[in-house]
Amino acid sequence: MWVAVDVVARRIAGDIVMSDSPGAAMRKWREIFGFTQSEVAKAMAVAPSVLSDYEKGRRVPGTKFIKKFVEALIRLDEARGFPTVRKLAGNLILFGQAIIDIREFSQPLSVGEVVELVKGVVVSGIVDDRKVYGYTVLDSVRAITSMSGHDFWYLMGFTSERVLVFTRVSLGRSPMVAVRVAPVKPAMIVIHGPRRRVDPLAIILAERERIPLVVSFAESVDEIVESLRSRSI
């Protein structure tokens, strides 16, 4: 559930930041969640008039205020059982057990920088000047056992221009076959598992898709997540 909450929170914050009218975007999200100005202002520990000033464009919100605003919406929705978050997250909740972590980088990274973060070695694919904007770390076994083909395609929609990390992988064939048939492709693939070997077919598929395929030699999945989080928002 908390993976879905994180994704929704980042979606709201990003929409406000990128909006030409941040105040109008804040009002839109408050109304989507179904809260009054007074309710949200109380959760933020500010006066309703302050929130009103931001929504009407008399003040321009900074990142700290936006973060506080989004956290208030999530906290209020949690008290009701997350009805709005569940609606916005959609299928993410259904396969949340398969997602170990999903975040955006604080600034775009090169493929080489990501390789260093995961203590990886590039074994196939095209390493060019593409930028990587975020990451998704998957438990491959849980993904295979709990996700349908439709679920996986839905998830891939969140991985464009991102690194997709498959953990608990033996040879990497299944992840690359899945990527091969998916309509949206990640910027790069990292596999991590006990064998540290790669199936020849996985290498061929990475070459055909022109996607960098990386084997991580990190000691644990936790080490990978901690390293990637160090460069995330």
Q: What attributes does this structure have?
A:
single chain, 233 residues, alpha/beta, 434 Repressor (Amino-terminal Domain), Udp-n-acetylmuramoylalanyl-d-glutamate--2,6- Diaminopimelate Ligase, Chain: A, domain 1, 2 domains, 6-stranded mixed beta sheet, 6 strands
How would you explain this protein's 3D organization?
The chain is of the alpha/beta class and 233 residues long. It has a 6-stranded mixed sheet. It has 2 domains: 2-90, lambda repressor-like DNA-binding domains (434 Repressor (Amino-terminal Domain), Orthogonal Bundle); 94-229, HprK N-terminal domain-like (Udp-n-acetylmuramoylalanyl-d-glutamate--2,6- Diaminopimelate Ligase, Chain: A, domain 1), CATH 3.40.1390.20. It has helices at 2-18, 22-33, 37-44, 48-55, 63-79, 83-89, 111-117, 140-146, 149-156, 173-181, 200-209, 221-229, and strands at 99-110, 120-124, 131-139, 163-167, 188-192, 213-216.
